[in-house]
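dumping this here before i forget
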Amino acid sequence: MQIYLDYSATTPPHPLVIQRVQEVCGQSWGNPSSLHGWGNRAATLLEMARMQVASLIGAANPDEIIFTAGGTEADNLAIFGITDQYREPQHLIISQVEHPAIAKAADFLATQGWQVTRLGVNRRGQVDPQDLEKAIQANTVLISVIYGQSEVGTIQPIAELGAIAKKHHITFHTDAVQAVGRIPIDLRQLPVDLLSLSGHKIYGLQGAGALYVRDGIKLQPRLYGGGQEHNLRSGTQNLPGIVALGMAAELAEETMPQEIERLSRLRNFLLNRGSSSPHLQITGDRHARLPHHVSFALRQDSPLLGLTGKTLVRQMNLAGIGISAGSACHSGKLNPSTTLKAMGYSDQEALSGIRLTLGAQTQMEDIEWTAIALEQILQRQPTVLLA
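structure:
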């Protein structure tokens, strides 16, 4: 029995997406910038995808959607698109639980003289809006806070944070790669200026994403060339990937209400089963949480403390179940999860984090079997698991 529970890493392309991509590759392979019939057909598909993505996130104008090669490029375009406009280093604010596409961009800017404030989070992984208010300086030009945290599933109070940024006339960006298509987002209502998303997180293809840029927000391009994507992202567009993203967005919008209900039910079952273990504790916010997201770490008093999330991933893989771990391996050394450390967990707890994320193909029998397999693994003697 094979059970895939790593949908936050990537999702399998939807069959209708695959079918559409095959049609595009076979019939509409023109360059969208060309003026002849082949180019016009491609351009029509490109703009249709722009409308589909805009509809999913409630963008007022499809032209506010800029296609990129994925979430990382979208994040970088947002960060550097703002900061590159300044001759002298200014101040930006991020959280301590950002994706590396944001955190490492901020690290680089710090080496260039920029002041970077990293907002702390509580034990559930949430930023306190009051902390944001206190962190704002006269030279703050950008605030970027992740929408749904990929490792622990916590949803940030984006409306409150964005409202604070708007009050101070500061550009506000959110990395919504894990949130788009999984929870409702309406940018007509949310005070968000820039928003990143990715196609392969919503049953599209890897290699295509988008940055929402609210009308009136100016960005400095990162790529120069033919002036595609409103002069913000030059280069011939990845039409198959973008069409896949558009169709995936349309399907996500259609199925979201029922999928939120279904996945939340499966998520809660697995959270309850896991938290009943003497070894596991839930990480992240129990309620302000992505509907498909489950995450645990070992309890401080567990005799298994010292067991790493990587080991649990390998053990679950032997049982035919695909999950992921939060700790990172660099140069052969296993490092505690920076997210769990920011949330106040000890080094050993932060080494033990695991993530199980559900998706369209996940059924209750998969979750029941996963719970049994995880319980059986945790019931083994510590000397066996820690060997």
